[in-house]
Amino acid sequence: MRIAIIGGGIAGLAAAYELEKARAAGAPVKYTLFESRHRLGGSLASETVDGAVLEQGPDSFLTEKPAAAELCRELGLGDQLLPSNDANRKTYILVRNRLVALPDGLMFLVPTKLIPTALTPLFSLRTKVRMALELLHPPRPSQGDESVAALVERHYGAEAVDRLADPLLSGIYGGDSVQLSARTVLPRLVEMEQKYGSLTRGMLAAHNKMRAMARTSAQQGKAGKPAAPRHIFTALRGGMQQLVDALVARLDPAAIRLAAPVQSLRRNGESWVVETASGREEYDAVIAASPAWAVGALLKPVDAQLADELTAIPYSSSITINLVYDEARLGQLPEGFGFLVPVSEGRSMLACTFVHRKFLGRTPPGKAVFRAFLGGMKRDFLLGESDEALVATVRREMREILGAQVFKPGVEPEHVQVTRWNRAMAQYAVGHKERMERIAARVAALPGLRLAGNAYDGIGIPDCIRLGRKAAQELAAASTTLAAQAH
After folding, report:
1. Are 11 and 468 in contact (CB under 8 A)?
2. Cα 165 from Cα 159, distance rounded (Å)
3. I want to staple 12 with a disulfide (CB 3.0 to 4.6 A). Which of 7, 267, 306, 368 is the partner?
4. Domains identified in the chain and CATH numbers
């Protein structure tokens, strides 16, 4: 079976790696990876400047999703896995140009501790009263999908949307809580509302259940020691580029086509015809691992309805700016990992991470690295600004937010790096689950077609790896079955 992989981001690379493994194990598969750019890895890109690891795209992945760490260990990168410095984890929200720490006991969007919630200046008295009364919410039967903003506002009020849901989700999705699907983005909260009514009661029940299970596990264990707490994020010591390089090293160089954008994709009987500037080639199957809008454009002549569904998936753009400073020349930073900026603050920045604190050992002693995020659904116009204008904006806003005592007059960054990601992050809008069902039905009617990437079933690195490997495993298994039938 000849398989074309369209897109050399992490999903496409994971698919190629899986097919290479299957080929080495004797499966009758051949693959070609087409990438439009001059490099592989998609948004996973990092470089080391004077000993400081600078991430241009994602800097880590969620530890609780195992696919990324498992792949790293398979590739011999287990000793390079670096947990986040959660002992010093503290995140701030900008409120009226003042940094306010997220209160203790906040589990994502749900407050679970009375006193920290009552004392925090993050919310007004009216919102705090509403949060207390939220405990009385009765169970609510499912009434179809709705936005995250609608779900959060119904329980905690509009201020919680503005100061909590929007900035947190902007940091993850670069998205807008008014558009994002509650059922897809926050399925656990939707289930808790149906069962408990109150999200706070539901989260407390889930937390107590986990603690009870941990105690039982510890009591049954021979050593009698509870499991160490899992860190929220995991990175690679040398940057996420390590994962890309390790994957590429396992692939057949002859199977990789760089700077080779696919110009058209069509069916010819039972085959798929892939056309590039170099000509046309026929394949038995295709793993489409490019952004959904690009895949939709290619599939328009094959299935117009599928193409319309894919191109209807919204995407946001983003900009990351890394700034490296001599730490000795800066004043004292607030504790923690960084801060998030609500849209209502009228700033260009979405967030800023204190990189040298989030992951220890990736920044040389005496250096401070700040990573600012701009763009998102409401600020995509910033992509039209020059690098110089963007850096000037970020430096001004950081100085206004953190104060002149941190960024003293005359202090300049030693290194600046600006990276733009145009239409890179899929947005799971209201109705996303139903759209995925329609897409799955159309794909099932096209033999040999598989979709992988951040537009379908999870936006993170582990999700993309899982989907890429799953697509390749299915096709490799099919090729083995067909070969056996032929004999």
Report:
1. yes
2. 9
3. 7
4. 2-42+242-313+428-486 (3.50.50.60), 105-220 (1.10.3110.10), 316-426 (3.90.660.20)
| Consecutive H or E run containing 106 | strand 106-107
299, 307 Cβ separation under 8 angstroms: yes
Structure tokens at 9: 């981001």
Only one residue has tokens 């963007």, namely 390
Tens of pLDDT, residues 139-187: 998 888 999 999 999 999 999 999 999 999 887 787 889 999 999 999 9
Q: Which residues contact 82 (CB under 8 A, 6 or more apart)?
A: 234, 235, 236, 237, 359, 360, 361, 362
Q: β-strands 98-101, 91-95: how paired? A: antiparallel
Determine how many CB atoms are found less than 10 A away from the CB of residue 105.
Answer: 18
Q: Write the pLDDT tens digit of every residue in 108-130.
A: 789 999 899 999 999 999 999 99
CA–CA gap between residue 70 and residue 244 (Å, rounded)? 14
With beta carbons less than 8 A apart as the criterion, state whether 305 and 54 touch.
no
What is 133-186 written as a DSSP string?
HGGGPPP-------BHHHHHHHHH-HHHIIIIIHHHHHHHHS--TTTBBHHHH-
Structure tokens at 328: 């000795």
Rg value, the chain, Cα: 24
Residue 387 φ/ψ, nearest 5 degrees: -55, -45
* Joined tokens for residue 40: 């592989």
Residue of 1, 45, 5, 2 whose CA lies nearest to 258: 5
pTM of the model: 0.93
Nearest to 203 by CA among 327, 107, 77: 107
Contacts of 433 (CB under 8 A, 6+ apart): 145, 181, 183, 184
Rounded distance between C-alpha atoms, residue 174 and residue 166, angstroms: 9
